[in-house]
């Protein structure tokens, strides 16, 4: 009995069944009541067809809404459940787009990441954002290393110098930093716009911005010198 | 003439507060409260005056006194919620509004108030759902429509935005809130001139409102002819700044290949433009 419900031919088979349960399960549960986790996936699929023949299926959007937004619609009972708790610090308004832009412009890629991490902390979404910031730090470290340590990196540097002159690397780092600012804006755009439209007070970005500019610049110089020194 | 009874004073103070005359309301209330300091109706009006004058601590202390005497007073509970919201005591504010919603589950105003709290704590999805739930009980409710429109602005759902805005324009064409939302919608579209015109209408309707006056002034500055070179930044924000900087770097490099004099002139013009972009709106603010 247990085996027949848990045996899958391969990972795709398992994934398909999980997604089917994820989308149609709530419809059937609402119509027939709780069924138990091991009920047959195909049974749920056909029951959903009978109970909600007009139900629209948009797989990616549906998964996005359920995972990211916590469900397409909420019942009145769930709406009247508290969402805030005394244990958790409330969400604080993020540093402005102006502050993150200028920090990235003058502080380089590490400065840009640092101010965005501060925003993630203020918005209480650091756990969610950590993989992205880690990936961007690794991309920066790898890109600088490749630029100075590999033949193709040397060719890129030559092309930059011919196209943009002596200040080419500074420009490249600045462009990288601004692309990170764009990533941060994309991640936090709803919170940034909420702050403006809900009339929340933003923190003064000067202190944090300057700290990130100095810290980011020093880190960049030290790392570039280290990479160049190991050549 | 007989002195006014506390009940009559409460009614007159409430009428004055509706017109925003807090000073007159305070003078009328003072002798009545001195004669009957424990009258909950008078105390509540005193708390509303403090709230409207931004004296939140005093208002909260008075409203707590009222709630101690009468925990079911609806007006006092609403004020209590608003004060907690103003003081950023969001968890307590949520408990207060949930208490009201459980007692009045079909009142759209409470859904709108709860949605406003959710907006302030960046629970955007719940804010929108609450406002839509409120609209089920009153599809024309201005508070709920406003929250839905704001949620649409935040999520940049332009199609839905126009629908929510249309509802506001159709159902509440005279409302200042509709005009205010229209200003935001026009600004979102980058139509600063129209936003400026509508904001001037707001000032005409409420000349004493400092927020409207400041907003109209800001739009007047932003739509001034001398701000035309700032148009890309007004429309596309910091993305436009980055694009202009990049164009300048590549343009300068290209000009250096043609003529050093041209490159030098280009540098001067670009530096002047940068200085203008940082300073001109501030100078204009002093001039206008």
Major pleated sheet of chain B: none
Q: What is the typical, i.e. mean, pLDDT of chain B? A: 91
Mean pLDDT of chain A: 78
Kindly name the structural category of chain A: mainly alpha
Please state the overall shape of chain A, judged from the principal axes of the Cα atoms: elongated
Number of helical runs of chain A? 10
N-to-C series of helices and strands of chain A? HHHHHHHHHH
Shape of chain B: elongated
Q: What is the end-to-end distance of chain A? A: 63 Å
Give the tally of β-strands of chain A.
0
Major sheet attributes of chain A: none
The helix/strand series of chain B, from N terminus to C terminus, equals HHHHHHHHHHHHHHH
Rg of chain B computed from alpha carbons, rounded to a whole number of angstroms: 25 Å
Q: What share of the residues of chain A does DSSP label as strand, in percent?
A: under 5%
Protein topology:
The complex is a heterodimer of chains A (about 230) and B (about 290).
Chain A: H1 2-6, H2 11-32, H3 41-51, H4 59-68, H5 76-79, H6 97-122, H7 126-149, H8 151-164, H9 168-197, H10 206-229
Chain B: H1 6-18, H2 22-35, H3 40-52, H4 56-69, H5 74-86, H6 90-103, H7 108-120, H8 124-137, H9 142-155, H10 158-171, H11 176-188, H12 192-205, H13 210-222, H14 231-258, H15 260-287
Helix pairs in contact in B: 1-2, 1-3, 2-3, 3-4, 3-5, 4-5, 5-6, 6-7, 7-8, 7-9, 8-9, 9-10, 9-11, 10-11, 11-12, 12-13, 14-15
């Amino acid at each position: 009995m247990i085996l027949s419900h848990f045996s899958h031919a391969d990972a795709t088979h398992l994934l398909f069944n999980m997604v089917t349960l994820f989308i149609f399960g709530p419809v059937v549960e609402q119509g027939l009541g709780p069924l138990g986790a091991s009920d047959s996936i195909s049974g749920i699929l056909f029951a959903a067809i009978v109970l909600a023949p007009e139900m629209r299926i948009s797989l990616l959007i549906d998964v996005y809404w359920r995972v990211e937004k916590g469900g397409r619609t909420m019942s009145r009972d769930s709406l009247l459940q508290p969402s805030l708790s005394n244990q958790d610090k409330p969400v604080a308004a993020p540093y402005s787009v102006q502050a993150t832009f200028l920090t990235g412009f003058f502080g380089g890629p590490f400065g840009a990441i640092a101010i965005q991490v501060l925003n993630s902390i203020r918005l209480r979404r650091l756990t969610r954002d950590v993989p992205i910031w880690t990936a961007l730090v690794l991309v920066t470290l790898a890109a600088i290393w490749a630029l100075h340590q590999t033949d193709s990196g040397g060719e890129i540097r030559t092309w930059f110098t011919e196209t943009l002159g002596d200040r080419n690397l500074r420009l490249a780092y600045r462009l990288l930093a601004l692309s990170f600012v764009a990533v941060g804006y994309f991640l936090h755009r709803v919170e940034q716009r909420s702050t403006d439209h809900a009339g929340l007070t933003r923190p003064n970005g000067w202190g944090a911005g300057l700290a990130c500019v100095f810290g980011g610049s020093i880190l960049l110089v030290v790392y570039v010198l280290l990479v160049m020194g190991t050549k | 003439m007989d002195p006014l009874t506390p009940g009559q004073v409460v009614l007159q103070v409430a009428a004055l507060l509706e017109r925003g005359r807090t000073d007159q309301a305070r003078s009328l209330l003072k002798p009545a409260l001195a004669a009957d300091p424990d009258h909950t109706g008078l105390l509540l009006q005193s708390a509303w005056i403090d709230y409207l004058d931004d004296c939140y601590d005093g208002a909260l202390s008075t409203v707590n006194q009222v709630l101690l005497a009468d925990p079911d007073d609806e007006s006092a509970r609403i004020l209590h919620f608003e004060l907690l919201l103003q003081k950023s005591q969001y968890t307590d504010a949520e408990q207060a509004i949930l208490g009201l919603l459980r007692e009045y589950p079909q009142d759209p105003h409470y859904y709108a108030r709860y949605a406003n709290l959710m907006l302030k704590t960046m629970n955007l999805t719940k804010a929108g759902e609450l406002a839509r739930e409120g609209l089920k009980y009153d599809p024309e409710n201005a508070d709920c429509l406003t929250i839905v429109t704001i949620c649409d602005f935040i999520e940049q759902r332009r199609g839905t935005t126009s629908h929510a805005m249309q509802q506001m324009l159709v159902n509440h064409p005279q409302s200042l809130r509709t005009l205010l939302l229209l200003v935001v919608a026009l600004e979102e579209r980058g139509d600063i001139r129209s936003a400026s015109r509508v904001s001037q209408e707001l000032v005409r309707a409420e000349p004493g409102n400092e927020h409207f006056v400041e907003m109209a002034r800001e739009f007047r500055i932003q739509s001034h002819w001398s701000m035309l070179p700032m148009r890309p930044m007004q429309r596309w924000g910091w993305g436009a700044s980055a694009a202009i900087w990049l164009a300048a770097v590549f343009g300068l490099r290209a000009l250096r290949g043609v003529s050093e004099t041209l490159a030098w002139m280009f540098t001067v013009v670009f530096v002047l433009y940068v200085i203008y972009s940082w300073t001109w709106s501030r100078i204009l603010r002093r001039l206008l």
